[in-house]
């Protein structure tokens, strides 16, 4: 038997192994069809019987992932020389289509051919509009849509989480713009160098939810495949700046490498630089970051957070190239008294506490004290802690039914403790100035 005949028989055996499967999965069809198209043209084969029943089922031959091609050595069947080579290519195909190679794929549904199309009327003015599309339009495997409905379904959890965050209307609109731009692949150029940056600056005071927003963005773009790994790393100055020149670049590069494929979130990024004088350590750090923003523009998303003016006077001042690399700018609105009240009540509920009479808790209570809540969400969390402490003193030795039920008196006394501690912090700062 000739070598070519042996290869041909191995190829036929390979096809027969699929023919005998009672429930071939989507990956089986995709790999096989891709191999058939890559290794020979069906129309040029004289004896089409060698394809067996597969040739009769033309829907199989019409499917192709085009994920990899054959070796260019003028041999139609060279790919099938060994069973190991077959396994190797199947393994690579699993990785290419984003499937865990250690996962059991035996229950993957058979390929469903596209037999119908559906035009979805789209008008996006809010996150609720996107969520409504997901809830009302059934995702069918046999239907082609005018929008990427499958991707929207994949990120529903993150969209709902973002939509349920109190306030932030301007920021939510900015996220919609970014999402719809990325989900249509409009950021991808003809070549790697012409693609757009994903790096984002989030402006706003402490306690406005910047970290939570960054995490949600990272999860969304990971599920969409825009970012390859579900990596989110939050860092501050101490994680990046070294103790001596040269060490800073090493520390910064290490952090960046750990975030490739995901999100690097730099909170209070203005602390990386000094607004009044040059700092060699800061410059070394920011120069390293600036270089990475371009080198890994397709594999990395860097999100910085802080006050806009302070970032302009420090972070962006030290290295002028940073400005053009952070093309996305989100602004977090300051919370008004009504929103502060909603945040406070939400935190009470999340901790399985209740109000003795929720109608006692008025917006006016928060409005009268808003000047002392400049850290917004953080202050609401701290306020609740002091209120619970005051509550503990009030109900000590009393009926268990009173526990974890907040009264207005608890709130007033808890606020007094909150204010006392806030003033103590201010006094320590002033005292420190005189030292």
UniProtKB/TrEMBL annotation:
Any Pfam family matching the protein: AAA
Domain AAA+ ATPase intervals: 196-325
Keywords: ATP-binding, Nucleotide-binding
GO molecular function: ATP binding; ATP hydrolysis activity
Stated family: Belongs to the CbxX/CfxQ family.
PANTHER family to which the protein is assigned, alphabetical: AAA-TYPE ATPASE FAMILY PROTEIN / ANKYRIN REPEAT FAMILY PROTEIN, AAA-TYPE ATPASE FAMILY PROTEIN _ ANKYRIN REPEAT FAMILY PROTEIN
Annotated protein name in UniProt: AAA+ ATPase domain-containing protein
Source species of the chain: viral metagenome
UniProt lineage: unclassified sequences, metagenomes, organismal metagenomes
């Amino acid at each position: 038997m000739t070598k070519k005949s042996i290869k041909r028989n191995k190829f036929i055996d390979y096809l027969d192994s699929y023919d005998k499967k009672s429930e071939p999965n989507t990956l089986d069809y995709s790999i096989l069809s891709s191999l058939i198209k890559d290794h020979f043209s069906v129309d040029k084969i004289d004896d089409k019987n060698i394809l067996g029943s597969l040739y009769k089922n033309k829907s199989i031959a019409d499917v192709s992932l085009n994920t990899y091609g054959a070796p260019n050595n003028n041999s139609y069947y060279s790919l099938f020389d060994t069973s190991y080579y077959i396994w190797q290519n199947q393994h690579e195909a699993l990785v290419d289509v984003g499937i865990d190679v250690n996962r059991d794929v035996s229950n993957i549904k058979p390929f469903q051919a596209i037999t119908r199309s559906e035009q979805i009327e789209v008008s996006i003015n809010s996150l609720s509009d996107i969520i409504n599309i997901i809830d009302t339009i059934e995702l069918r495997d046999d239907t082609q849509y005018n929008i990427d409905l499958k991707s929207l379904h994949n990120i529903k959890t993150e969209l709902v989480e973002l939509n349920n965050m109190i306030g932030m209307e301007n920021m939510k609109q900015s996220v919609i713009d970014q999402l719809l731009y990325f989900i249509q692949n409009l950021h991808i150029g003809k070549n790697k160098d012409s693609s757009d940056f994903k790096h984002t600056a989030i402006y706003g005071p402490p306690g406005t939810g910047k970290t939570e927003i960054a995490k949600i963005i990272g999860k969304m773009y990971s599920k969409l495949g825009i970012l390859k790994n579900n990596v989110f790393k939050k860092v501050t100055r101490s994680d990046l700046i070294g103790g001596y020149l040269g060490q800073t670049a090493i520390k910064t590069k290490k952090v960046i490498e750990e975030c490739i494929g995901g999100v690097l979130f730099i909170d209070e990024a203005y602390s990386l630089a000094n607004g009044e004088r040059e700092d060699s350590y800061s410059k070394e750090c920011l120069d390293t970051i600036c270089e990475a923003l371009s080198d890994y523009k397709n594999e990395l998303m860097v999100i910085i957070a802080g006050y806009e003016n302070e970032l302009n006077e420090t972070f962006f001042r030290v290295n002028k190239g940073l400005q053009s690399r952070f093309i996305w700018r989100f602004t977090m609105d300051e919370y008004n008294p009504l929103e502060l009240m909603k945040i406070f009540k939400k935190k009470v509920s999340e901790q399985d506490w209740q109000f003795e009479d929720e109608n006692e808790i008025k917006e006016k209570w928060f409005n009268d004290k808003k000047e002392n809540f400049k850290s917004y969400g953080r202050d609401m969390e701290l306020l609740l802690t002091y209120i619970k402490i005051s509550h503990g003193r009030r109900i000590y030795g009393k009926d268990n039914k009173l526990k974890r039920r907040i009264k207005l008196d608890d709130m007033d006394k808890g606020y007094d403790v909150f204010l006392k501690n806030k003033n103590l912090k201010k006094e320590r700062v002033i005292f420190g100035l005189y030292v």
